[in-house]
Write a structure and sequence with these properties.
Low-confidence stretches: 1-13, 85-110, 272-287
Number of strands: 0
Order of helices and strands: HHHHHHHHHH
Structural class: mainly alpha
Length: 911
């Protein structure tokens, strides 16, 4: 039997590989898209985490601002208490009756604003009442001085001078205290402005960082758009800074004007005692003019108070209108920006959703294709199984035919035995006739001659039958020898083919190992070069990423190459199987059995190879996943390092030490990465060596299975031939026994005839001579029969030796059959495991689809929650800004009220 060659031309392989690469390209792209899905999910999670961190920072900033505002308010209340409350030792007895103002403590944040407004109004009213009481006291004091002028002018003048000096001192002290308070307020306003500027700068930094992070994460916004956005935000912040600086300058100018007025008032107060003395000692002094002056002073004070109130209210209203307009504009701008951002986010989310849907559809299509491919393969396997079953049916039919032929042979043997028995009976009858006719030899010679001729004819027939049987035995022996030679040739061919397969596989594995080692060396060199250039130029990391992607594509191509090789091998095996089936059907029945078994064995081998290829694909896919995870981690680390570098560019003076620490960490990470790569390479080499060992063992098992199948076929052939030989030997033994019995009978008869002839035929010499001749002929026949018996005995001994050899072979073949049955059971178990794995893969695919849906829903919910949180935080920020603006307006009101009080005091002093 000829063994099919397993070597193929290289050009045909290349052409078929190119076609298979085109077929598998779509599947590989789908796998790459699947690997990209976790990257996008990771990016979305990182964005969400960055947003949460920024929200925490903003909340901390708001808490700090609220604490500072509370401190400023406490300082203001303390200053107001100092301004309003005077020491009782210096105040006149009339002032001691003035009700003391008790400011409330800082209430809760919810009720603080209302109570603050009420307290401010009450403070203003109390101040006005205090000033009116002071005016009344001054009027009473002047009236008392005028009434007591006539009584004790010298004493009264001394007392007046002392009182005036005390009052002047008190007023001067009050003005100095006012000046101090104004300076404190100025300093507080400056601090507040500085704090607001710092907050704005911090917000600017936060926004710039957010923009940079969004740019790094999205990588979709162009550099020109970024610069435009930055310029717009910088202009907005510059305008706000200019507004704040203008407000600061206005406050400074107002404070300077208030200081100048205070100086003028102090100078006028210093000139008051001289005026009072001149008025008191003047002779032409009219009391009516004094009363008129007092009335005019009161009216002027009231008018000035009303004018100042009107001016303050008008300015406050104008300032409120401006502030409201600015706030409204800012709110509108902020709302527009937020709307634009929300629209952009929604568009991005919709785009990502569309991409996810497309990827999902691709995955579904790929799964359907895989299912169809599997169904096609299963159909092929079922067709092959059906063909095998048909061949088995044919074999059973052939066995039935063989059984029918054996029955026919048995019938023919029975016929021959019957004929031989009939011949023996005839011989007996003839011998009896000889006995009867010996007395009348003369008369019955003719009859005896005729009978002798008949016996010779029968003997010739028997000799012909024996010669035919001998020829049949020789042909059977030749068949056995030819079958043995064919088996030896087949074994040699199989051994040569297996040796060639081993060599080819060993060479392929060596080539794969060398290629993998070269790739690993290249990857190591690339990683080292990229790690060294990472500190100098961050652009080199992008090149590294591209190199890693190319390596990844090369690995994918190698996977395609391996898959295409497997597919080609399967196709060629199928074609060879079909050719061999055609050849085997044309051969004899024995060869058809052998071919069928070889086909089943080759199918098992092909399935085993497919399993190995699937395992290799799984291992390669796992390695690709690891490499993709490494590249992804490195890309994410590079992005993080880029973000850190961009942040540190603005803060080099502060974070130089942190940069050095980061460099050290990078060096440690590089060393760790190198160690990890070394370990992984060692593990891969060990895995490949184990795979080589396993494949060699599998080849050995395949050889053993082939030998076992051939031994089974030989056993069947030998059993058939043994049965035939045993039947023939039994038949020959029976014939020999019959012939021996017949010869003994003939010898006995001859002895009786001799005795009778010696007694009776003394006279008939001629007749005796004839009888002697007959006896001589019969002796020759006996000698021939003896020779034939000896040859038959030798043949029987040879057959017995063959039977012993066949028994030994039967024992060996039985053991091999047992092993083959065990191997068949193992193959059946492997098929069942494959079916289970197919079911598990289907289940895993369904679970993956469910998990994808779940992740999409989770991402949608997270995005919606983040949007809600952003809206709530935006509202909270707007509220906090409104409160800040209200507090600023209240501070301005307090400043204006203080300015009004100062102006009133100036007017009073002037009067």
């Amino acid at each position: 039997m000829s063994v099919p060659s397993l070597f193929f031309s290289g050009e045909e392989d290349n052409e078929e590989f190119s076609l298979l690469n085109e077929i598998h390209h779509n599947q590989i792209q789908s796998l790459i898209d699947l690997h990209k899905i976790p990257d996008e999910l990771w990016l979305t999670r990182k964005r969400i985490e960055a947003g949460v961190l920024e929200q925490k920072k903003q909340r901390e900033m708001l808490t700090n601002i609220q604490e500072r505002l509370a401190q400023c308010r406490l300082e203001r209340t303390r200053n107001l208490k100092r301004i309003i409350e005077r020491p009782r030792s210096q105040s006149p007895p009339s002032e001691r009756l003035v009700p003391t103002i008790i400011l409330p403590e800082r209430p809760s944040t919810s009720q603080y604003r209302k109570q603050q407004n009420i307290n401010n109004i009450e403070d203003a009213l109390n101040r006005l009442n205090a000033l009116e009481q002071q005016m009344k006291r001054l009027n009473l004091f002047t009236a008392q001085t005028i009434s007591s002028s006539n009584i004790g002018t010298n004493y009264s003048n001394k007392i007046k001078e002392e009182i005036k000096q005390k009052k002047i001192k008190e007023i001067i002290q009050e003005f100095y205290e006012l000046k101090r308070n104004i300076n404190k307020l100025r300093e507080n306003t400056k601090l507040q402005l500085n704090e607001t500027n710092s907050l704005l700068n911090q917000k600017m930094g936060i926004l710039t960082r957010q923009l940079k992070r969004e740019i790094i994460l999205n990588r979709r916004i162009s550099i020109a758009e970024l610069e435009k956005m930055k310029e717009k935000e910088i202009n907005i912040f510059r305008i706000e800074n200019q507004k704040l600086s203008s407000l600061n300058e206005e406050n400074v100018n107002k404070a300077e004007s208030a200081e100048n007025r205070l100086k003028e008032i102090i100078e006028r107060i210093c000139s008051l005692p001289f005026v009072n003395i001149s008025c008191s000692f003047s002779d032409n002094y009219d009391y009516s003019s004094i009363s008129n002056l007092i009335i005019s002073i009161r009216s002027a004070i009231e008018r000035s108070v009303l004018i100042e109130r009107k001016k303050g209210e008008a300015s406050l209203e104008a300032y409120k209108v401006q502030a409201n307009e600015e706030l409204v504009n800012e709110r509108l701008n902020n709302e527009r920006k937020l709307k634009n951002i929300e629209i952009e986010k929604r568009l991005l989310f919709e785009q990502e959703k569309v991409e996810w849907i497309v990827e999902k559809n691709k995955l579904i299509n790929e799964l359907e294709q895989i299912k169809t491919d599997k169904s096609v393969e299963i159909a092929k396997i079922e067709a092959n199984i059906k063909l095998i079953e048909m061949d088995k049916i044919k074999m059973s039919n052939l066995e039935e035919q063989i059984n029918s032929l054996s029955t026919e042979l048995i019938d023919e043997r029975n016929k021959f035995t019957k004929e031989i028995s009939q011949n023996n009976e005839k011989h007996k009858i003839e011998i009896n006739e000889y006995k009867l006719n010996l007395n009348d030899l003369k008369t019955k010679l003719v009859i005896e001659q005729k009978e002798h001729q008949k016996s010779q004819i029968i003997v010739n027939q028997l000799e012909e039958i024996k010669s035919v049987r001998n020829e049949e035995l020789i042909t059977a022996y030749n068949r056995l020898s030819s079958v043995e030679s064919q088996l030896a040739i087949a074994c040699k061919n199989t051994e040569e083919a297996t040796i060639k397969l081993k060599k080819e596989k060993h060479e392929l594995y060596l080539e794969q190992l060398e290629a993998s080692e070269l790739r690993l060396k290249k990857e190591r060199e690339d990683w080292l070069a990229d790690a060294e250039s990472a500190d100098r130029d961050w652009k080199a990391q992008n090149k590294l990423i591209t190199k890693a992607e190319t390596n990844r594509k090369e690995l994918i191509k190698s996977l395609d190459y391996a898959n295409s090789k497997l597919a080609e091998l399967e196709r060629k095996l199928d074609s060879q199987v079909q050719k061999e089936q055609i050849l085997q059907r044309s051969n004899s029945l024995i060869l058809s059995n052998e071919n069928e078994r070889e086909l089943s064995f080759k199918l098992e081998v092909a399935e085993h190879k497919v399993k190995k290829a699937a395992e290799l694909c799984q291992k390669l896919s796992a390695e690709l996943d690891k490499l993709s995870e490494k590249s992804f981690n490195q890309s994410t680390s590079s992005e993080k390092l880029l973000a850190d570098l961009e942040e540190t560019k603005g803060e080099l003076s502060i974070f130089r030490d942190s940069l050095e620490n980061e460099k050290r960490k990078n060096v440690q990470l590089e060393t760790e990465i190198r160690q990890m790569e070394k370990e992984e390479n060692n593990q891969r080499i060990n895995d490949l060596e184990q795979e080589l060992i396993n494949k060699q063992q599998q080849i050995i098992n395949q050889k053993e299975s082939l030998n076992e199948i051939r031994i089974e076929q030989l056993e069947q052939i030998l059993t058939i031939e043994r049965a035939e030989n045993a039947n023939e030997i039994e038949r020959i033994r029976k014939e020999l026994k019959e012939e021996r019995n017949h010869s003994k009978i003939i010898e006995n008869e001859l002895l009786t005839i001799k005795l009778k002839t010696k007694a009776t035929m003394t006279e008939e010499v001629l007749e005796n001579k004839k009888t002697t001749e007959k006896e001589y002929q019969l002796k020759e026949k006996l000698e021939q029969t003896k020779i034939e018996n000896i040859s038959l005995i030798k043949r029987i001994e040879i057959a017995e030796k063959r039977e012993l050899e066949s028994k030994i072979l039967e024992t060996k073949l039985s053991s091999e059959l047992h092993e083959l049955r065990l191997q068949r059971r193992e193959t059946v178990k492997e098929l069942e495991n494959l079916q289970r794995e197919l079911r598990e893969t289907k289940i895993t695919n369904q679970e993956i689809e469910i998990q994808l849906k779940r992740f999409l829903e989770m991402d949608r919910r997270r995005v919606s929650a983040i949007m809600k949180q952003t809206t709530l935080e935006k509202n909270a920020l707007n509220k906090s800004l409104n409160t800040m603006e209200r507090e600023n307006s209240e501070l301005q009101k307090h400043c204006r009220s203080l300015q009004a009080q100062v102006e009133r005091l100036e007017e009073k002093l002037l009067v």
